[in-house]
Amino acid sequence: MSELPEYRLDRVFDAPREMVWRAWTDPKLLARWYGPGVETIIHKFDLKPGGTWLNEMKMGENSMLSKVVFTEVAPLERLVWHHHSNTDAEWNTVPNPRMPDWPRILLTTVTFENDGTKTKVVLTWVPFEASETEISCFADAMANMGKGWESGYAIMDEMFAEMQA
To answer: Structural domain boundaries of the chain?
Structure first.
């Protein structure tokens, strides 16, 4: 593959940019919507370039651990990170147990823009330092990626309604 596939999700939230930014950067709010349908535990959240976000999603007796390394933090404007899809208990990157060909690292970019009194968020995911097999797996999965994000965004909509009431 010569060009990397890019997953893109555009969404306008009925909330001011400061509130939407906070939902992405305040661990208490982030844990409410990130990983809908599971218990999200944020073990560490160091919001700065080079800082890490250590995340656990508990599904009953099972857990999925992931590690994010922030590369850019521009308050109210942009977040960029390398998302390590899965980690072991020591936070070392490991293959996804359900999808062994899934890219081990994704480059994630989230931008925030004013849209009148609302906020437009654009999220992109691109395989990073991925093999051809991983790139192909990512491309094949793109059609279904929106389901999880949209479920989380629906929770954000509810949070913003509560916060503005």
So the answer is: 7-164
| CATH number for the domain running over 7-164 | 3.30.530.20
Between CA 17 and CA 13 the distance in angstroms is: 9
Q: Which residue has the tokens 């070392």?
A: 92
Q: Are 87 and 93 in contact (CB under 8 A)?
A: yes
* Cα–Cα distances in angstroms (integers) from residue 45 to residues 76, 104, 140, in the given order: 17, 20, 31
Cβ-proximal residues to 22 (8 Å cutoff; 6+ apart), any chain:
29
- Are the beta carbons of 125 and 135 closer than 8 angstroms? no
pTM comes to 0.92
pLDDT digits (tens, 9 = 90+) for 136-164: 999 999 998 888 899 999 999 999 999 99
CA dist 96 and 75 (Å) reads 31
Tell me: the pLDDT tens digits for 19-38?
Answer: 999 999 999 999 999 988 89
